[in-house]
Amino acid sequence: QLQLVESGGGLVQPGGSLRLSCAASGFNLDYYGIGWFRQAPGAEREAVSCISSSGDTTKYTDSVKGRFTTFRDNAKKTVYLQMNSLKPEDTAVYYCVTDCDPLAAWGQGTQVIVSS
Q: Cα separation of 108 and 71, whole Å?
């Protein structure tokens, strides 16, 4: 059964960095674009980024441009979200999804807390 597993979250201070990973189980990740979404407590889920299946094209929401980078290593069947200059408002549970589609397969998410 198709499954995505997110990892790499944690507690960091403002200005710090984290790298999130999205790995596939039961399917070939190379065939899919992968999106990152996040949901903060009490807030609606929002799109963060999207990367094409080849890795040639990326998109970002305005609030993370210049700070976040998504990239992939298809040989390792993993998609990454590098998060730099983290802000408290980045605190959320982060999810990866196939086809950058929030209605597609979801993992359990990985929690990111940015706090001093």
A: 20
Burial 90-106 (b: 16+ CB within 10 A, else e): bbbbbbbbbebeeebbb
Length, in residues, of the chain: 116
Task: Classify the C-alpha dihedral 92-12-15-84 as positive or negative.
Answer: negative
| Cα–Cα dist 60/35, whole Å | 10
Give the model confidence (pLDDT) of 32-66 as tens digits: 999 999 999 999 999 999 999 999 999 999 999 99
54-56-62-63 Cα dihedral, nearest 10 degrees: 60
Q: Report residue 77: phi and psi, to 5°.
A: 55, 45
Encode pLDDT of 73-83 as tens digits: 878 889 999 99
Q: Residue 104 and residue 116: Cα distance in Å, rounded?
A: 35
Q: How many alpha carbons lie under 13 Å from residue 108 in its C-beta half-sphere?
A: 4
